[in-house]
Design a protein that fits this description.
GO biological process, one term: response to oxidative stress
Number of domains: 3
Shape: globular
Number of strands: 24
Distance between the termini: 52 Å
Pfam families: POR, POR_N
CATH architecture of the largest domain: 3-Layer(aba) Sandwich
Strand content: 15-25%
CATH superfamily of the largest domain: Pyruvate-ferredoxin oxidoreductase, PFOR, domain III
Keywords: Oxidoreductase
Helix content: 25-40%
Radius of gyration: 27 Å
GO molecular function, one term: oxidoreductase activity, acting on the aldehyde or oxo group of donors
Oligomer: single chain
CATH class of the largest domain: Alpha Beta
CATH topology of the largest domain: Pyruvate-ferredoxin Oxidoreductase, domain 3
């Protein structure tokens, strides 16, 4: 079933683009079909065009699931608009399905009457069977709820590349560029930037084949009779300045580089590859000229030990991982608490437990971040909330680590790590100076008049101990995991001293609450319902709150970047609302903390599907809370 219209040549030439405010496009195909690349190029060109955008790459969990199966489907969703947006869209307006498995996996996401573009060449016996179809869904009314356009992408790509001498099987690998060209025409995206990019990425016949397929797809949209007209999303009116399209992992890596510059310290990253954090290691390894040193360790434990050793030697010590690695690094993190050294552990969360859903997003590591160490071992937790904001979150985590001489856990997640959005490049002059002095002289005079260095004398404001680089003349000192005597740093088994040290380490973290911004209310301070969010729920909450308020319903929202300690005014703010809802991609971990700390009747909104919240889900939760409250 094909949506076709008979147009004359003159009418085809006069098909002017229809202006629309936004569109959500989802590319879906086998994991070998290049859907991530296709979506990334469509996103990049839209960013160059000036649109605001938000993306959601969706990878298969297996490294290479059987080709043509639902488990092997890779998708990329992008939302482009002429106004400010925060989410990749609840439901695609357009689904490009490269094979039956992609159709089966993602059709339920497409809005009713949405545009479905399928590669009809792939809808044959074996491919249908592997996807679990007992019939061809293109041949009956199965897709009657959608506007279906069948395009033989594979054979058209082979036809376009045949004059180049490309073999049919090799030509098939370029069909993703045919799809990109077609959708680029449909939404008035220029293809020349992609042609230039292909020239830098590929060589020889592969380059020529991809360019030919891209142009063939674009020209097919222009000359075929399958579409009434193209569409256009005008550039967004964003604040003036220079922008770049950035993913969360790259923004976080750049934030760590910036933190090193702002701290006037070399950055050391000890890391072991793990999805979805590996791109931070890849990105940082490119920037040795900024004083960044990266080591791919033999395992997670070694990576953490290297980073802590670097911190002892006067570097900004960083280690990156995901949930399983946090567990393995817990002993070293506890040691960092005892040593009181600046050490940043970046946790890019994913679905768990164990290997779980390595390519799917979740935010269920708050418990391990809070409590995943032995003994009383408190530390600050900073949570990034958008891809671009990962830059600022990285700087803030490093600031706290350096100023308070403490390990810090920085939480991101797979949704932020792989998602992208336009980022307004900051003026370097506006970034904070987070440098701290090294101890270079003795700091204590003994009873006999001898000058000494005491490694655990504390700053009266921050309770941070001094930081002396090993080898500094006259500042020989000992650190280790056995309990220290306050001040001298000597080993102590005294019950009274241990009590004192436990309370001092907790008090140091508690004082951070006075060094972070107060919690603020977005929306209506006199509303009955307040949403309390943290991490990547920010995007869906923002959209849900805006829509709810536009509909005339009052609602408030508080979002946390500092999860431990929390802002000192948070309890008072939460107690001013009748209903507190806590959306989380877990089973209510922050909600339990809030209920325990502030004794408010907070209610969790939970989701553990490996997917982010949609704004509609949160809108419904707000309405349910208001309805429930009205019924009492």
């Amino acid at each position: 079933m094909t949506d076709t219209h008979s147009l004359t040549g003159t009418e085809r030439q006069d098909r002017q683009p229809e202006q629309i405010s936004h569109v959500v496009v989802r590319f879906a195909g086998d994991s070998g079909d290049g859907m991530q690349l296709t979506g990334d190029r469509f996103t990049s060109v839209s960013a160059l065009f000036g649109n605001d955008l938000s993306t959601f790459p969706d990878y298969p969990a297996e490294i290479r699931a059987p080709a043509g199966t639902v488990n092997g489907v890779s998708s990329f969703q992008v939302h482009i608009s002429d106004h400010d947006i925060t989410t990749p869209g609840d439901a695609p307006n357009v689904l490009v399905a490269m094979n039956p498995a992609a159709l089966k996996a993602d059709l339920h996401r497409l809005e009713q009457n949405g545009l479905l573009i399928v590669n009809s060449d792939a809808f044959e016996g074996r491919d249908l069977e592997k996807a679990g179809y007992d019939h061809n869904p293109l041949h009956d009314d199965f897709l009657a709820s959608y506007r279906v356009v069948e395009v033989p992408m594979t054979s058209l790509t082979q036809l376009a590349t045949e004059p180049l001498g490309v073999k049919p099987r090799d030509a098939e690998r370029s069909k993703n560029f045919f799809a990109l060209g077609l959708v680029s025409w449909l939404y008035s995206r220029p293809i020349e930037p992609t042609v230039e990019w292909i020239g830098t990425r590929f060589k020889d016949l592969v380059k020529d084949s991809n360019v030919a397929a891209l142009r063939a797809g674009f020209n097919f949209g222009e000359t075929s009779e399958l579409f009434d007209h193209p569409y256009q999303v005008k550039p967004a009116q964003l604040p003036p300045g220079e922008y770049t399209n950035i993913t969360g992992n790259v923004a976080l890596a750049w934030g760590l580089i910036a933190a090193g510059q702002l701290a006037k310290l070399p950055v050391f990253l000890g890391s072991y590859p793990i999805t979805p954090a590996s791109d931070i290691l890849h990105e940082l390894s490119k920037h040795k000229h900024f004083g960044v040193r990266t080591v791919q360790a033999e395992d997670e434990i070694a990576a953490a030990g290297m980073a802590l050793g670097a911190a002892f030697a006067g570097h900004l010590g960083i280690t990156t991982t995901s949930g399983p690695g946090v567990a393995l690094k817990s002993e070293t993190t506890s040691l960092a608490v005892s040593l009181e050294l600046p050490f940043v552990l970046v946790d890019v969360q994913r679905g768990g437990p164990s290997t779980g859903l390595p390519t799917k997003t979740e935010a269920a590591d708050l418990n391990i971040a809070m409590f995943g160490r032995h003994g009383e071992a408190p530390l600050p937790i900073v949570a990034a909330y958008s891809p671009a904001q990962c830059f600022d979150a990285a700087i803030e985590a490093c600031r706290l680590a350096l100023k308070y001489r403490t390990p810090v856990i920085l939480l991101s997640d797979g949704y932020l790590a792989n998602g992208s959005e336009p980022w307004l490049l900051p003026d370097p002059a506006t970034l904070p100076d987070i440098s701290v002095p090294f101890q270079t002289a003795t700091n204590h005079v003994a009873e006999d008049g001898t000058e000494e260095y005491w490694p655990y004398l504390r700053d009266p404001e921050t309770l941070a101990r001094p930081w002396a680089i090993p080898g500094t003349p006259g500042l020989q000192h000992r650190v280790g995991g056995i309990e220290k005597e306050d001040g001298t740093g000597n080993i102590s088994y005294s019950p009274a001293n241990h009590t004192k040290m436990v309370h001092l380490r907790q008090a140091k973290i508690d004082r951070i609450a006075n060094d972070i911004p107060l919690a603020t209310i977005t929306g209506d301070a006199d509303a009955d319902v307040c949403l309390l969010g943290w991490g990547s729920t920010w995007a869906a909450i923002d959209a849900a709150v805006q829509r709810t308020r536009r509909a005339g319903t009052k609602v408030a929202w508080i979002h946390l970047t500092h999860v431990n300690p929390m802002p000192p005014n948070l309890g008072a703010l939460l107690k001013s609302f009748k209903h507190v809802l806590v959306p989380e991609l877990n089973l209510g971990q922050l909600c339990r903390l809030v209920r325990a700390d502030y004794l408010v009747d907070a209610k969790p909104i939970t989701k553990v599907q490996g997917l982010p919240f949609t704004s509609a889900e949160l809108e419904n939760a707000i309405q349910d809370a208001l309805t429930e409250g009205a019924g009492k």
